[in-house]
């Protein structure tokens, strides 16, 4: 755009015109239009004529060096021009001031748009360059709650999702990463300061320490160990001890976890039975060694006539905090209290059980072995395992079955049985009836005429009952083995030769 520059008629100075004008147009999208339409920049009436541009001149492409703000829908166009290199008496200073004002207004508009534009994930375009802001994780969507969710809704959502995706429960790929994301989302939305930063600046605001004052600073983007957060909700030995300065709170959780009733461990018993006992089932008496409640202290582990007291070392927290000074600063280490073993209480142990509250005893248990079990089968007997601590429920008893092999009958495919019978070659030619051993006893089996060596005959419904459905039984397969003598008498030889002649 050409610039028209003139001097006052009364000026006696020679006019020299050297003009360089640079116009940069930047487009911003905003809902607010600044400044109002009709604003123009004019020198005061007392100043000498200098470079300027009125609203009409700028619209028509005439004039130069001035600034003009034009409104068009929701688009604001800011034009700034560099100062002219022309210098006149009484005029050069005004041109420089005017350029500074236009530049300042353009900068103000740009700052307002950046502040009002907010959110991440949208693309802002300007003429000559493109800026793309990537979207962070939507914590509300991750927890499945609305942006107006209260503390109770957040806790309820976290409990459900944390249980679903905990690595000890969910073995699918990516479950642990999902569990960590859920924990981070809850930690941010449950904290008023972090939530305010996240709502205004998104996830990037937490990582970059935005917010100013008490909101920003180091540590805003750091998250608590997700497993410590989980333990603080559902209990456990870890509690919230992993949260630095809140170690005392974790100690109380840990002590409470050790003192509350816990379920006893499961017990294993190995049982060996005969082949036929596995096929049709049987009754067995088992002598099981297991932990039972101490009858002297009734399972409390405390000596009769005494009561537990609060530990003087840890103050009942079950943990002690040791501070270590290093060149990098002070570090706190949380360890289990050695005086009370993490229970938060000290007491005189029961002399019979040694303070455990349980003693090992033998108990005779009757067990019904169902029909159709096989080696490797496992039977579960509920509540017959070890007794729980502090009055907790007992575990279960698991009986592992081993079946002795039978010399004649071989089991395959779980419910089928195979066996072998041997007959002379003459019986194979003429046919016969033989006695075959089965799981039901000895049964007659008819061998057809001309049976071939190695042939297999089927005896239906003579196999093993199906485990869990004894009305369904397998089959027994009989393999025929034909014997041929090494030596025969003269009479037998003559008969065979006669038979051979007839075959020809």
From TrEMBL:
Residues 138-202 form the J domain. Keywords: Chaperone, Chloroplast, Metal-binding, Plastid, Repeat, Transit peptide, Zinc, Zinc-finger. Transmembrane segments: none annotated. A zinc finger (CR-type) spans 281-362. GO terms for molecular function: ATP binding; heat shock protein binding; unfolded protein binding; zinc ion binding. This is Chaperone protein DnaJ. The keyword Secreted does not apply. One of its GO terms (biological process) is protein refolding. PROSITE patterns: DNAJ_1 (PS00636), DNAJ_2 (PS50076), ZF_CR (PS51188). Residues 1-15 have a biased composition (Polar residues). Belongs to the DnaJ family. SUPFAM superfamilies: Chaperone J-domain (SSF46565), DnaJ/Hsp40 cysteine-rich domain (SSF57938), HSP40/DnaJ peptide-binding domain (SSF49493). GO terms for cellular component: chloroplast. Residues 281-362 form the CR-type domain.
């Amino acid at each position: 755009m050409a610039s028209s520059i003139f001097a006052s008629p009364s000026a006696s100075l020679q006019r020299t015109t050297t003009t360089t004008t640079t116009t940069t147009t930047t487009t911003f999208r905003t809902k607010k239009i600044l400044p109002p339409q009709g604003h123009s920049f004019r020198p005061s009436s007392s100043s000498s004529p200098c470079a300027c541009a009125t609203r009409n001149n700028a619209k028509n492409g005439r004039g130069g060096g001035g600034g003009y703000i034009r409104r068009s829908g929701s688009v604001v166009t800011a034009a700034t021009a560099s100062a002219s290199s022309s210098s006149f008496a009484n005029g050069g200073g005004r041109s420089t001031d005017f350029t500074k004002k236009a530049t300042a207004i353009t900068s103000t508009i740009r700052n307002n748009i950046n502040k009002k534009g907010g959110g991440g994930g949208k693309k802002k375009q300007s003429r000559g360059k493109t800026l793309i802001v990537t979207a962070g994780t939507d914590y509300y969507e991750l927890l499945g709650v609305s942006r107006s969710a209260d503390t109770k809704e957040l806790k309820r959502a976290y409990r459900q999702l944390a249980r679903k995706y905990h690595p000890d429960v969910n073995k699918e790929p990516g479950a642990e990463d999902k569990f960590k994301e859920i924990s981070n989302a809850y930690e941010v939305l449950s904290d008023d300061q972090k939530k305010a930063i996240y709502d205004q600046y998104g996830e990037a605001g937490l990582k970059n320490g935005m917010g100013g004052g008490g909101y920003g600073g180091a540590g805003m983007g750091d998250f608590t160990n997700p497993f410590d957060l989980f333990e603080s909700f559902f209990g456990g030995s870890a509690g919230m001890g992993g949260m630095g300065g809140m170690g005392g709170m974790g100690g109380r959780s840990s002590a409470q976890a050790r003192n509350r009733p816990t379920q006893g461990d499961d017990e294993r018993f190995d049982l060996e039975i005969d082949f036929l006992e596995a096929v049709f089932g049987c009754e067995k008496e088992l002598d099981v060694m297991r932990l039972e409640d101490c009858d002297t202290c009734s399972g409390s582990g405390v000596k009769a006539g005494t009561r537990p007291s609060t530990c003087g070392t840890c103050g009942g927290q079950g943990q002690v905090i040791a501070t270590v000074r290093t060149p990098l600063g002070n570090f706190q280490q949380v360890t289990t209290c050695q005086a009370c073993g993490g229970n938060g209480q000290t007491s005189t142990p029961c002399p019979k059980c040694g303070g455990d509250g349980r003693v090992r005893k033998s108990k005779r248990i009757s067990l019904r072995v169902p029909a159709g079990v096989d080696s490797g089968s496992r039977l579960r007997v509920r509540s017959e395992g070890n007794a729980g601590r502090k009055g907790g429920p007992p575990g279960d008893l698991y009986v592992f079955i081993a079946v002795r092999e039978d010399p004649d009958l071989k089991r395959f495919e779980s419910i089928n049985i195979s066996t072998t019978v041997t007959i002379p070659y003459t019986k194979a030619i003429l046919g016969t009836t033989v006695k075959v051993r089965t799981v039901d006893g000895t049964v007659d089996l008819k061998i057809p005429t001309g049976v071939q060596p190695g042939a297999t005959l089927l005896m239906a419904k003579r196999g093993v009952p199906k485990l869990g459905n004894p009305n369904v039984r397998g089959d027994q397969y009989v393999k025929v083995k034909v014997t041929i003598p090494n030596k025969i008498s003269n009479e037998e030889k003559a008969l065979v030769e006669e038979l051979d002649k007839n075959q020809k």
